[in-house]
Known about the structure:
The protein has helices spanning 49-60, 182-195, 261-281, 297-307; strands at residues 8-11, 17-25, 28-33, 36-41, 45-46, 84-94, 101-112, 117-125, 128-137, 141-149, 158-165, 174-179, 200-205, 244-246, 286-290, 312-316, 327-332. By secondary structure, it is of the alpha+beta class. The strands form four sheets. Strands 4-3-2-1-5 form a five-stranded antiparallel β-sheet, with no helix packed on it. A four-stranded antiparallel β-sheet has the order 10-7-6-13.
Amino acid sequence: MKFSIGDKILLKHTGEEGTVTDFLGKDMLEVEVNGVHFPVYLDEVDHPYLKWFTDKNRQAKKAAPPPAPAVEKEKDRPKRLPKGIYLSFMPVFKPNETEDIVDQLKIFLLNETASAIRFSYDMRLAQASVFQLDGALHAFGHLYLHSIDYADMNDQPRFHWALSDATNTDYRKEQGTLRIKTSKLFSHINELLLKNEPTFSYMLVEDFVEKAKEEKEEKFILPEKTVFSKSPRITSFSDLPREVIDLHIEQLVPDYKGLNSGAIMNIQLRALERSLNLAIAFKQEKLIVIHGVGAGVLREAVHKILKETPEVKSFRNEYLAKYGFGATEVFFRR
């Protein structure tokens, strides 16, 4: 299927018509629909001429409606992005004396799920908001947000986001902050050039999770601090300091069936206290605490303990390649 810039196109999923505005690679186009520019794969669009011809014949022969179009089998379609919601970055190049260089990054929100979503987006640079947008995006929809000068990426802007399912209030709202290090950005662009691809993306949410039921009778109590001496006695492998502590309950106890949420929380926070004390006693530089994303209850309890621990210099819950937003990096005073 061949297209040229200026050609009319038809979006298969929504039936909306638009215009081709740019080529983004051999498998992707940039199109404009109702004033909005966004990328689409070739398999997501078609020429609208058949639809125009069909509509014309339908009006002429109302008594004999045309047969329903054949449904494209999902297994025959080319592979798309895995299910989830992404923030996608498309480098825009400009010619230089010797080679093309990146001038800007176009930023898109991709909803690769079967549900409409509501979103809130805020890009901040040097603690100041540069671009904000709240809105909704239909299923399998792509939305162009804004552009940012490539030079501004050296200041490591923060992309704050919040997402919720627009059709089901039983799912909880997900939110977080994305920051891309300069070295990582450089690596992404080199990889795009090698693979001849137009964009790189970060998954924000794979799928929405149902809200946790309120259990008023089950409470957890922050454990009392256990203070080690400067040279703690090591009697087993569990007494050794670790650089990473995973607080998922299945990593802490062999059998947790029958435990209520309060008992599980107490086990998790006691494991955190022990790891903190060992790290402090052995003068570690940092510790990574894996608490997961979830409803945020465990994360907030972890952060409360960190704030009350004087040996903790700072901590941050930002995107990490290995753990996503499900871990907090802790830095100790030396």
